[in-house]
Amino acid sequence: MRELTYIARRTVEWREAPDPPLQSDVQAIVAPVAATSCDVDSSILAGHGFIDPPFALGHECVARVVETGDAVTTVAPGDLVVVPWSINCGTCERCRAGLTAHCTAVPYMAMYGAPIGGTWGGLFSDLVRVPYADAMLVPLPAGLDPVAMASASDNWSLAWRLVAPHLKARPGARVLVVARGSIGLYVCDIARALGASDVLYVDPDPEHRTLARAFGAATAETLDPISQGYDIAVEATGRVDQLALAVKSLTPEGICESAGNHFRPGELPLLDMYLTGVTLRIARDNVRAHIPDALELAASGKVAPEKVVSHVIDWEDLPTALPEKHLKPVLVRTDD
């Protein structure tokens, strides 16, 4: 098989690798059919990552099950499934508590798409081994388009978690989204669908702002802090200065969710946050726990994640297409 390998800034290539075999009766082999780059992949391709190449890239896809171990009961060959980005066993204490990104059965930070916590390969590969098939794989509901849901492995389900539980607790809340990519746009769509009274999307990219307006959000190119303006803020830029602006715009006891990958240090307005009573969460997401709810919302017809897909590209064109700057390209394989 081939796996797409990150070589250097804006450079990837196919590299041959052995077909992954089943190593236990709880594993599965899957073949990605629709894979996409997440916002982290975009940072890696731009040269902003902290891991030296080469390594297999990719951690968002819908795949078709090729083979399963004898003990696998929840999926079967031929099924379309969402493959979560983090490796988890489903049975340790943390997994049972929903902390699937912190599974104690595997090395810390075990994931697809980067050699952290072991080498698990990437989801831009012809074949992928899933070490805990029943725990990890989520069947794609009938009627959902794999292209539209290629990001359910991470960004789509993360966007659901960033805003949906808070809107359930605070119906009609005002939502601020400070973003640079797909996560923020997904949040706009989900927030509108779940009853936010006001959504402001801040992004310097005019095409992104146009799409946010199609989701019912007001937009701005830059943000001046709006004192006590919003109940919920979502920052997805990876820039601490933008995170600081977001938290300074919160109402008393407001909530800020940061989904940015902050590779560079910075300062936060801690006194302002103290006086306002801000709750700030910065976390790698336990996405497996949220995928079913996020898929349920996608299947409801109240949202349109397909609108964020910017390009649909043939699988064979991955090495040339992926390094290009696209909002949310989906690489589609039709040879299965």
From TrEMBL:
Alcohol dehydrogenase-like C-terminal domain: residues covered: 183-298
Keywords from the named record: Metal-binding, Zinc
* Coiled-coil spans in chain: none
Alcohol dehydrogenase-like N-terminal domain residues: 27-140
Cofactor dependence: Zn(2+)
What domain of life does the UniProt record list for this protein's source?
Bacteria
Name it: Threonine dehydrogenase-like Zn-dependent dehydrogenase
* Organism of origin: Streptomyces achromogenes
